Amino acid sequence: CNLHDAALAYLLGSGFSAPVLVDAVSAIKCPRLLPWLDRLHTLKVNALEATALTGLAVHTPQEAQAACLQLHHRGVAQVVLSLGAQGVAWCDAQGQTDFALARHVPVVNTSGAGDALVAGLVHAHLQSWPLAQAVRWAMACAELTLQSPVANAPDLSAAAIAARLAVAA
C-alpha cells in the first residue's frame, strides 16, 4: 500500500493473472485497496488496518475472525490478521476462519516481525500449503524475528523455522 493509486490500478486493474499477496502497511494507506479487494489472493492486515478496511472494531480473536470473514466476503480470497502478542486470525479461500494463539517469546525488537510474517506467507504460498499451515509457518518466522536485535533476523531460514515448528509440535 506504499504504491500510489495509479500504480495499484495499473497492477491490479490490468488483468495481471499471478496471485497478488499484499501487506496493508498502515491504516492510513490501506484504504487504497478498497477498489481492488477482489483482485487480492492474500491480504495481511493488523487490527488497525482491518478496522480501516471494514469499519469493525478489532480487539479480540473473535472480532479478528469476523473482520477476516468480512474482507473475504468483499472479495479477498485469503485474509491474515495479526493481533500481535495475542496471535493471528485468518480466513481461507473457502471462508473458514480460525485463530492461532501466539507463543510467548522473549521480544528483543518488534521491527520486521510483520514483514517476516508476510515473507512466511509468501514462502508457504509457493509451497502450495493450506492457509492454516502457512499461518503457523509465518508466525514462526515472526517469532524468530522478534528475538533478533535487527529487523532482518540473520538466522531466519527454512531450516530454522522447520526446527522451531518441530519443537512446538
How would you characterize this protein structure?
The chain has 169 residues and is α/β, with parallel strands linked by helices. The protein is 42% helix and 14% strand. The chain contains six helices and five strands; from the N terminus they run αββααβββααα. It has a five-stranded mixed sheet with strand order 1-2-3-4-5, with helices on both faces. A hairpin with a 5-residue loop joins strand 4 and strand 5. Helix 2 (47-54) packs across helix 3, helix 4 (113-126) runs antiparallel to helix 5 (131-146) and helix 5 crosses helix 6 (158-168). The protein is globular. The N and C termini lie far apart (35 Å). The relative contact order is 0.11. The mean pLDDT is 95.
In short:
The chain is built from 6 helices and 5 strands.
Radius of gyration: 15 Å
The proportion of residues forming helix, as a percent range, comes to 40-55%
Total E-strand runs:
5
Strand residue content: 5-15%
> Order of strands across the biggest sheet?
1-2-3-4-5
User: What are the segments in which pLDDT stays under 50 over at least 5 consecutive residues?
Assistant: none
- How many helices in DSSP terms? 6
Could you report the average pLDDT, rounded to the nearest whole number? 95
Structural class: alpha/beta
Tell me about the largest β-sheet.
Answer: 5 strands, mixed
Note the run of SSEs as H and E: HEEHHEEEHHH
* Termini gap: 35 Å
Shape: globular
